[in-house]
Structures are given as C-alpha cells and as structure tokens.
Specification:
With 208 residues, this protein is of the alpha+beta class. Helix content is 46%, strand content 17%. The longest helix has 23 residues, at 54-76.
Amino acid sequence: MKDTSFVQRLMEFVEADLDASSSRRFAMGFYMECVPAYDEAIIQIGREHGVDETELWEKIREFQSEWRKALDWIEERKGRNYQIEFLEREVFSWTFGEKPSFTLGAAESEEGKLDVIIYNLSGWTGKSFGADEKASCPKEEKTFPPGARRLFSALDGLPTFAIGRCGNCGQWFFNPTKREKVYCSPVCRNRANVRKASQRKKKGAEAP
C-alpha cells in the first residue's frame, strides 16, 4: 500500500514556517522520520541532557532547503521524459559477538541521501532502454535528500500533477485525485478568479 500521507507531510514540511512555534514540533517530527537512526539518537540524547538545539535546527532548515530545491528540480522537468536510476552501493560486512555473521546489503549515502543517475529521454524513440542506449543518452548524477525513496514509491502510478505549486499562492501541494488542479484550495481558486475578473474589467475600461 502506498504511503501517500508521506507526500502530504513533505508538502507541509517544505512550506512550514520554522520560526513559528506551531510548526516546530511537526517539522522536527518529520525530520526524525527521514534522517538515519544515529541522528534520531543524537536528538534524543540532546533532549535528555538539555543540549542547545540551535545546531539541530540549522540542520532542519538545511533539510527543508534541500527538499525545496529537489521539488523545484522535478517541477522544472515535468514537461520532458526522464528516468531516475538509483545507485545502490553494496557493502559486505561481518559482526562478532553472540551470533557472528556475514551481511551483504545496500549502503545509503551520507546522512541517508539517495544517489541517482538521471537519464534525459526527451529525444529517445526506441523500444528498449538498455546498457547501449544508456551509454549514449544525456545523463547527470544527482543526490536527493533523505526520504526521496519514500516519495518516489508513493508517487508510483500517480499523474505528474499529483505534486505541484499553487497557481495563486505558489505553495507546494499534493493532489491525490485523478483530476488536475491548478490551485491548492478553493480559497486560492476564488482569489485567482477575482483577480482575473478585475484584470479583465480594467482592460475593458482602458479600451478605446
């Protein structure tokens, strides 16, 4: 089952006012939901020992900025065809102790970020996209913030207008319906209609 609620929380997080006390609890909760376990441990230890959280909030602000840039990057490329390939780096390790064992698994990049290769398929017309096609296809490497894998999983199968910026207020919003929406709410839709009507009236009055 898709975790589309994660997409909604991400949209709320990127628009959250981190200086407002009403937003800080939610913002910290979302950050802890996305960052690796060791950061969660640091946060918990800091709370228990009364450590200054200034550094933590700097990290949360940076995390918010990274996600805003990532969403802008996606939005700017919606009109073209792209394929994102995850760079799964494998790590072989072993443990000692009560039950020593070997382990082979995927390794996350620094701080849980997702490393990917992005292929621009705008000019591609073939039926298959294998190693030969990838070698000649325009591509770039990019790193998405922690939580990107969950976002991509939740968006699987949804139309590209599922996430976007409001045509009135410019805020990010999630549209889980099958009908495209330009505005994030009825309030913004009404305000935009009033503004358009006012502009038409003004142009009519200025016409000779």
